[in-house]
């Protein structure tokens, strides 16, 4: 699946870009919400979510980079978001956040910053719909991903298989045409595509989006086939 990150879209032409990507068949829109505190930047606000919901039926995938994720759950539900995650290190008890999402019918995720090991998620894996693995430091776009973090994806995939769980693995930050293959081979299910992938501004956006999606799907199918044939 691909989830273009709207942080890398052309904000002055957002409606037009969304229409183009919708036609190209994106799976989700990845939207970073920042509070200027957990990370120094600000990005989209909640009014934008509502506005996007009015022009597109594509589900919204919300990545909270905020100090108090619980404060946002109610409002995200009011915006009709499909899925939301927040960083593990924001919580003393992530269970309360997961429960709040569950109560509102929002798919639940937890995010790992580069410094967080996959093993820290172990107590929560059973309850998660997805895990977001950040390949760069949260808060800034345009960073090159750190290849040593790819192994975290493999580790989560191994944990998932060992424990018979079905959470999805989403990778965010510096995903590109070149590293999509290695990431999917390690078990990534959702690729957040930005400046190095479908939104790289080389060529026509609809065509780039279609190609990147087709590429991620064929890689995924190849990976599943390999798993089945052992
Ligand atoms: Zn993100």
Q: Which key terms come to mind for this protein?
A:
7 helices; alpha/beta; TIM Barrel; 230 residues; 8 strands; binds zinc ion
List the helices and strands and how they pair.
Layout: E1 2-4, H1 14-23, E2 29-34, H2 46-55, E3 60-65, H3 70-78, E4 83-87, H4 94-103, E5 107-112, E6 130-134, H5 150-162, E7 168-172, H6 180-185, E8 190-193, H7 205-229
Parallel strand pairs: 1-8, 2-3, 3-4, 4-5, 5-6, 6-7, 7-8
Residues 5, 30, 32, 63, 172, 192 line the site of zinc ion.
Please give a structural write-up.
By secondary structure, this protein is α/β, with parallel strands linked by helices. The protein has one domain (2-229): Alpha-Beta Barrel (TIM Barrel). Helices cover 36% and strands 17% of the residues. The chain has 7 helices and 8 strands. It has helices at 14-23, 46-55, 70-78, 94-103, 150-162, 180-185, 205-229; strands at residues 2-4, 29-34, 60-65, 83-87, 107-112, 130-134, 168-172, 190-193. It has an 8-stranded parallel beta sheet. Strand 3 (60-65), helix 3 (70-78) and strand 4 form a beta-alpha-beta unit. Helix 1 crosses helix 7 and helix 3 packs parallel to helix 4. The radius of gyration is 17 Å and the shape is globular. It starts with a strand and ends with a helix. The model has no long low-confidence stretch (mean pLDDT 93). The structure holds zinc ion. Zinc ion binds at residues 5, 30, 32, 63, 172, 192.
């Amino acid at each position: 699946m691909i989830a273009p990150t709207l942080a890398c879209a052309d904000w002055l032409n957002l409606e037009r870009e969304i229409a183009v990507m919708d036609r190209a068949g994106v799976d989700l829109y990845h939207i970073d919400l920042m509070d200027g505190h957990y990370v120094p930047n600000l990005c989209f606000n909640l009014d934008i979510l509502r506005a996007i919901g009015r022009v597109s039926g594509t589900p919204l995938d919300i990545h909270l980079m905020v100090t108090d994720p619980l404060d946002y759950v109610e409002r995200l539900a009011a915006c009709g978001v499909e899925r939301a995650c927040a960083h593990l290190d924001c919580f003393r008890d992530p269970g309360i956040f997961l429960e709040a999402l569950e109560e509102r019918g929002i798919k639940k995720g937890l995010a790992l910053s580069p410094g967080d090991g996959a093993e820290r998620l172990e107590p929560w894996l059973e309850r998660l719909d997805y895990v977001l693995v950040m390949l760069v430091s949260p808060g800034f776009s345009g960073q090159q991903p750190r290849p040593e973090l790819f192994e975290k994806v493999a580790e989560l995939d191994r944990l998932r298989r060992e424990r018979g769980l079905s959470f999805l693995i989403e990778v965010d930050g510096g995903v590109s045409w070149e590293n999509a293959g290695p990431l999917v081979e390690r078990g990534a299910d959702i690729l957040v595509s930005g400046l190095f992938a479908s939104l790289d501004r080389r060529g026509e956006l609809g065509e780039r989006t279609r190609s990147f999606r087709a590429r991620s799907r064929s890689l995924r199918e190849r990976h599943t086939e390999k798993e089945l044939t052992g």
